[in-house]
Amino acid sequence: MRQEATRYVAMLVLIAIIAGLLAAFFMRSNKPEDYFKSIFVSVAVVAFLLTATYKDYDANQFRNPEFEGVLKVAPWMIGIAEEAIAKIDTLGRKLELIADNFNKLYQQIDELQPLETAAGNIRYFMFLTFIITLLPYNL
Predict the structure, then answer these.
(1) Is 89 contained in some domain?
(2) Which end of the chain has the lower number of beta carbons within 10 A, N or C?
């Protein structure tokens, strides 16, 4: 672990040196002092950030984490998100069913006969309905 951290810090310092050189190059400086100043500033910034991170880092906090602020409600928010995703899936299936039913409805509408040709069937249906309604009274 320590070896990886050392390799990581060395990589960050190398990146800072390259960034300092590029900054001086893009500022079109011809003096070697400007290149050294730029490198010094970029390495100092990286050193400051690494020092601040190291001073604030406490590995023991990972053994018993205590969340503060927004992170306290994170499990609750994740639960709500999972419920929403499940409901979206259910809603998608219901919308697919509705679309299929609309498709069937429009197919049935296309198969409907014009009213003139269906008039005989309507009269027959009305006659049967009339007979069925009179049946209980004749018993």
Answers:
(1) yes
(2) C
